[in-house]
Amino acid sequence: MAPLVWLVTGCSSGFGREFVHEILKRGDKAIATARRPESLEDLKKTGAAVLQLDVTWDQNRINETINNAIAIYGHLDVLVNNAAYVLGGAWEDLSYQDFHDAFETNVFGPLKVTKAVLPHMRARKTGTNIFISSISGWNGIGFDAGYSGTKFAIEGMAESLDDEARPLGLRTLIVDPGYFRTDLLSQGKLKTTVSSIPEYAEASKAFNQALAGINHKQAGDPKKGVAVVVDLVRQEGVASGREMPLRIALGQDAYEVIKNKCSETIKLLEDWKDVISSTDLD
Ligand SMILES: NC(=O)c1ccc[n+]([C@@H]2O[C@H](COP(=O)([O-])OP(=O)(O)OC[C@H]3O[C@@H](n4cnc5c(N)ncnc54)[C@H](OP(=O)(O)O)[C@@H]3O)[C@@H](O)[C@H]2O)c1
Fold first, then answer.
1. How far does residue 86's CA lie from ligand 1's centre (Å)?
2. 3-class SS shares of the chain: helix, strand, coil, % to 5
């Protein structure tokens, strides 16, 4: 198999960084990107090509950056839309701008970067677009709307992309990790607020304490998680002889959360089937 050329967003830490190490380990080419180029110095030393890319840049600047990326190895096979951050807080405490900023990074970022690579992949009739979503893209919990909303959006957008681009030879993969030990919930990365509204104060405090308690104690190993994703793309290891699915959950917690959501949804449909089925025109 010829080496694949990958571009990964958000490589300053966490999954992004692990992707680059795993990609290079498999003999593929990695283009590591981050909004702070200085955070990529050590990845450059391990053999990755590096580029500055802030996913909140405008479409023209992102197109230019992706064209520069494609020029490095002459083509691009795999895009990993990885960059994102967690916005916590009650609906009433977060401003429209807070929500807007989270969508700008977590949704419109992947949208713009993917739009920049699609013409290239369409012309080559091959390519894989990966979207790192979350269990928060399946299940909304209190004080998580600013993050969960973005991941639900990505789920639907990526699923639609798969339906329209699969006939052209392009693959889409949505990755739904549970809790993995990265910097996602660390001070400086996590954006969250304790409610100033008395009715929410206690629950909001408990939410923030829970996140702080989980930080750097998550069960998920990012190295193992990215190895599964690289296996799926390369159809080797755990994925040898198997077609790449549209979605893959990662982690036992993700399995439970998504299974419960599906079971609850099926129960809801069955409990209300008579009503649900009653609204067609006579
Ligand atoms: N870890 C988990 O438990 C978990 C669970 C489910 C889903 N995920 C998803 O996994 C992905 C990676 O997160 P992680 O866990 O590896 O956390 P992380 O260590 O915080 O990594 C997030 C990365 O996104 C980058 N980023 C943020 N805003 C950006 C922007 N505007 N432009 C470019 N890069 C930007 C960060 O760069 P800076 O250093 O510049 O901020 C950082 O490199 C995210 O999509 C996250 O939602 C993680």
1. 8
2. 55, 15, 30
Q: Answer yes or no: is the C-beta of 84 below 6 A from any ligand 1 atom.
A: yes
**What contacts 139, CB < 8 A, 6 or more positions away?**
148, 257, 258, 260, 261
- The model's pLDDT over 31-57, given as tens digits with 9 standing for 90+, comes to 999 999 999 999 999 999 999 999 999
Residue among 73, 96, 147, 200 flagged as catalytic:
147
The residue whose CA is least distant from atom 20 of ligand 1 is 184
49-96 tens-digit pLDDT:
999 999 999 999 999 999 999 999 999 999 999 999 999 999 999 999
Instruction: Please tell me the predicted confidence (pLDDT) of residue 1.
Output: 81
The CATH topology of domain 5-264 is: Rossmann fold (3.40.50)
What ranges do the domains of the chain cover?
5-264
pLDDT, tens digit, for every residue of 235-261? Answer: 999 999 999 999 999 999 999 999 999
Residues 6+ apart with CB under 8 A from 259: none
65 within ligand 1 shell (Cβ under 6 A): no
For the question of residue 96 being annotated catalytic, the response is no
Which residue, by CA, sits nearest to atom 32 of ligand 1? Answer: 54
